[in-house]
Protein backbone atom coordinates (compact mmCIF):
# COMPACT_ATOMS: atom_id res chain seq x y z
CA UNK A 1 0.00 0.00 0.00
CA UNK A 2 2.78 2.41 0.93
CA UNK A 3 4.50 1.95 -2.42
CA UNK A 4 1.26 2.70 -4.30
CA UNK A 5 0.60 5.86 -2.27
CA UNK A 6 4.21 7.00 -2.69
CA UNK A 7 3.96 6.38 -6.45
CA UNK A 8 0.74 8.41 -6.59
CA UNK A 9 2.39 11.24 -4.63
CA UNK A 10 5.39 11.23 -6.96
CA UNK A 11 3.14 11.20 -10.03
CA UNK A 12 1.22 14.19 -8.70
CA UNK A 13 4.50 16.03 -8.04
CA UNK A 14 5.65 15.30 -11.60
CA UNK A 15 2.34 16.56 -12.96
CA UNK A 16 2.59 19.67 -10.80
CA UNK A 17 6.16 20.21 -11.98
CA UNK A 18 5.08 19.88 -15.60
CA UNK A 19 2.33 22.45 -15.10
CA UNK A 20 4.73 24.76 -13.26
CA UNK A 21 7.29 24.45 -16.07
CA UNK A 22 4.59 25.33 -18.58
CA UNK A 23 3.62 28.37 -16.52
CA UNK A 24 7.24 29.53 -16.38
CA UNK A 25 7.54 29.19 -20.16
CA UNK A 26 4.22 31.00 -20.63
CA UNK A 27 5.42 33.84 -18.42
CA UNK A 28 8.76 34.07 -20.26
CA UNK A 29 7.05 34.18 -23.66
CA UNK A 30 4.59 36.80 -22.43
CA UNK A 31 7.30 39.01 -20.93
CA UNK A 32 9.44 38.67 -24.07
CA UNK A 33 6.41 39.59 -26.18
CA UNK A 34 5.70 42.59 -23.97
CA UNK A 35 9.31 43.80 -24.28
CA UNK A 36 9.38 43.20 -28.04
CA UNK A 37 6.05 44.99 -28.45
CA UNK A 38 7.37 48.02 -26.60
CA UNK A 39 10.55 47.99 -28.65
CA UNK A 40 8.61 47.70 -31.94
CA UNK A 41 6.53 50.72 -30.91
CA UNK A 42 9.68 52.64 -29.99
CA UNK A 43 11.38 55.39 -31.95
CA UNK A 44 14.35 53.25 -33.04
CA UNK A 45 12.28 50.48 -34.65
CA UNK A 46 9.84 52.96 -36.14
CA UNK A 47 12.64 54.99 -37.72
CA UNK A 48 14.84 52.09 -38.96
CA UNK A 49 12.26 49.59 -40.25
CA UNK A 50 8.73 50.89 -39.74
CA UNK A 51 7.07 48.51 -42.24
CA UNK A 52 8.66 45.41 -40.69
CA UNK A 53 7.84 46.63 -37.18
CA UNK A 54 4.23 47.23 -38.17
CA UNK A 55 4.02 43.80 -39.84
CA UNK A 56 5.20 42.13 -36.60
CA UNK A 57 2.77 44.18 -34.56
CA UNK A 58 -0.06 43.25 -36.94
CA UNK A 59 0.87 39.58 -36.48
CA UNK A 60 0.17 40.03 -32.77
CA UNK A 61 3.65 40.29 -31.29
CA UNK A 62 3.08 41.30 -27.71
CA UNK A 63 2.17 39.91 -24.33
CA UNK A 64 0.04 36.78 -24.25
CA UNK A 65 -3.60 37.55 -23.62
CA UNK A 66 -4.72 36.33 -20.21
CA UNK A 67 -1.32 35.10 -19.11
CA UNK A 68 -1.95 36.06 -15.49
CA UNK A 69 -5.32 34.26 -15.56
CA UNK A 70 -3.62 31.04 -16.65
CA UNK A 71 -0.79 31.46 -14.14
CA UNK A 72 -3.30 32.01 -11.34
CA UNK A 73 -5.23 28.85 -12.21
CA UNK A 74 -2.14 26.75 -12.85
CA UNK A 75 -0.33 27.78 -9.67
CA UNK A 76 -3.24 26.70 -7.50
CA UNK A 77 -3.16 23.26 -9.10
CA UNK A 78 0.63 22.99 -8.85
CA UNK A 79 0.64 23.82 -5.15
CA UNK A 80 -1.92 21.13 -4.38
CA UNK A 81 -0.08 18.68 -6.65
CA UNK A 82 3.14 19.04 -4.62
CA UNK A 83 1.47 18.56 -1.23
CA UNK A 84 1.09 14.73 -1.33
CA UNK A 85 4.82 14.09 -1.84
CA UNK A 86 5.69 16.71 0.73
CA UNK A 87 3.35 15.09 3.25
CA UNK A 88 4.40 11.49 2.75
CA UNK A 89 8.10 12.36 2.97
CA UNK A 90 7.58 14.86 5.80
CA UNK A 91 9.12 17.55 3.67
CA UNK A 92 7.17 20.43 5.19
CA UNK A 93 9.14 23.17 6.86
CA UNK A 94 9.24 22.81 10.60
CA UNK A 95 10.68 24.77 13.46
CA UNK A 96 11.97 22.43 16.12
CA UNK A 97 13.53 24.96 18.44
CA UNK A 98 11.29 23.76 21.29
CA UNK A 99 10.60 20.17 20.30
CA UNK A 100 14.27 19.23 19.86
CA UNK A 101 14.62 19.19 23.65
CA UNK A 102 11.46 17.18 24.27
CA UNK A 103 11.39 13.40 24.82
CA UNK A 104 10.92 11.19 21.74
CA UNK A 105 7.48 10.01 22.82
CA UNK A 106 6.23 13.59 23.06
CA UNK A 107 7.68 14.39 19.62
CA UNK A 108 5.89 11.35 18.20
CA UNK A 109 2.60 12.46 19.74
CA UNK A 110 3.08 15.96 18.33
CA UNK A 111 3.93 14.45 14.93
CA UNK A 112 0.74 12.36 14.92
CA UNK A 113 -1.34 15.39 15.97
CA UNK A 114 0.21 17.42 13.17
CA UNK A 115 -0.49 14.63 10.66
CA UNK A 116 -4.15 14.38 11.67
CA UNK A 117 -4.54 18.16 11.72
CA UNK A 118 -3.00 18.41 8.27
CA UNK A 119 -5.34 15.67 6.98
CA UNK A 120 -8.38 17.42 8.49
CA UNK A 121 -7.38 20.77 7.00
CA UNK A 122 -6.86 19.24 3.55
CA UNK A 123 -10.24 17.53 3.74
CA UNK A 124 -11.81 20.89 4.65
CA UNK A 125 -9.99 22.63 1.79
CA UNK A 126 -11.12 19.96 -0.68
CA UNK A 127 -14.69 20.29 0.60
CA UNK A 128 -14.63 24.08 0.16
CA UNK A 129 -13.02 23.80 -3.29
CA UNK A 130 -15.87 21.48 -4.27
CA UNK A 131 -18.45 23.98 -3.00
CA UNK A 132 -16.67 26.82 -4.78
CA UNK A 133 -16.50 24.83 -8.01
CA UNK A 134 -20.24 24.16 -7.87
CA UNK A 135 -20.90 27.90 -7.35
CA UNK A 136 -18.69 28.84 -10.29
CA UNK A 137 -20.48 26.27 -12.45
CA UNK A 138 -23.93 27.47 -11.39
CA UNK A 139 -23.18 31.08 -12.23
CA UNK A 140 -21.17 30.31 -15.39
CA UNK A 141 -18.35 32.56 -14.22
CA UNK A 142 -15.50 33.05 -16.68
CA UNK A 143 -12.18 34.83 -16.60
CA UNK A 144 -12.17 38.41 -17.77
CA UNK A 145 -9.78 38.26 -20.73
CA UNK A 146 -9.79 34.79 -22.21
CA UNK A 147 -13.24 33.84 -20.99
CA UNK A 148 -12.48 30.30 -19.88
CA UNK A 149 -14.82 28.93 -17.20
CA UNK A 150 -13.39 29.48 -13.73
CA UNK A 151 -14.74 26.15 -12.55
CA UNK A 152 -12.10 24.41 -14.71
CA UNK A 153 -9.39 25.79 -12.44
CA UNK A 154 -11.41 24.81 -9.37
CA UNK A 155 -11.86 21.28 -10.76
CA UNK A 156 -8.14 20.85 -11.40
CA UNK A 157 -7.27 22.14 -7.94
CA UNK A 158 -9.99 19.99 -6.40
CA UNK A 159 -8.59 16.86 -8.01
CA UNK A 160 -5.12 17.60 -6.66
CA UNK A 161 -6.52 18.58 -3.24
CA UNK A 162 -8.45 15.30 -3.00
CA UNK A 163 -5.28 13.34 -3.74
CA UNK A 164 -3.42 15.45 -1.15
CA UNK A 165 -6.16 14.78 1.43
CA UNK A 166 -6.14 11.04 0.73
CA UNK A 167 -2.36 10.88 1.09
CA UNK A 168 -2.53 12.94 4.29
CA UNK A 169 -5.15 10.60 5.77
CA UNK A 170 -3.02 7.61 4.78
CA UNK A 171 0.06 9.17 6.40
CA UNK A 172 -1.80 9.97 9.63
CA UNK A 173 -3.30 6.49 9.94
CA UNK A 174 -0.06 4.77 8.92
CA UNK A 175 1.98 6.72 11.49
CA UNK A 176 -0.45 5.85 14.28
CA UNK A 177 -0.44 2.20 13.31
CA UNK A 178 3.36 2.23 13.23
CA UNK A 179 3.56 1.37 9.56
CA UNK A 180 5.47 4.52 8.65
CA UNK A 181 8.71 5.27 10.47
CA UNK A 182 9.19 8.53 12.27
CA UNK A 183 11.51 11.01 10.61
CA UNK A 184 15.16 10.07 10.93
CA UNK A 185 14.47 6.38 11.59
CA UNK A 186 14.45 5.25 7.97
CA UNK A 187 14.44 6.57 4.44
CA UNK A 188 11.11 6.64 2.65
If you had to describe this structure to a student in words, what would you say it looks like?
It is a single chain. Residues 183-188 have low confidence and may be disordered. The protein has six helices and no strands. The protein has 188 residues and is an all-alpha fold. Helix 1 runs antiparallel to helix 6 and helix 5 (104-138) packs antiparallel against helix 6 (150-177). The protein has one domain (2-177). The protein has helices at 2-41, 43-48, 50-58, 67-88, 104-138, 150-177. It is elongated and about 75 Å long.
Order of helices and strands: HHHHHH
Distance between the termini: 13 Å
What's the number of domains? 1
Number of helices: 6
Helical content (DSSP H or I, runs of 4+):
over 70%
Radius of gyration: 23 Å
Q: What coarse outline follows from CA principal-axis ratios?
A: elongated
Poorly predicted runs of 5 or more residues: 183-188
Structural class: mainly alpha
User: Biggest sheet, in brief?
Assistant: none
Strand content: under 5%
Please tally the β strands and state the result: 0
Average pLDDT number: 89
Task: Indicate the topology.
Layout: H1 2-41, H2 43-48, H3 50-58, H4 67-88, H5 104-138, H6 150-177
Helix pairs in contact: 1-4, 1-6, 4-6, 5-6
Amino acid sequence: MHKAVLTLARAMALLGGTVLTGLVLLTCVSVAGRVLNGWLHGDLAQSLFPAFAQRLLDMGVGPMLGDFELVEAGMAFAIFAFLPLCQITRGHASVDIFTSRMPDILNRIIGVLVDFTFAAVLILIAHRLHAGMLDKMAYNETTYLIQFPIWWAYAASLGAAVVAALVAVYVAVARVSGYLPDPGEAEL
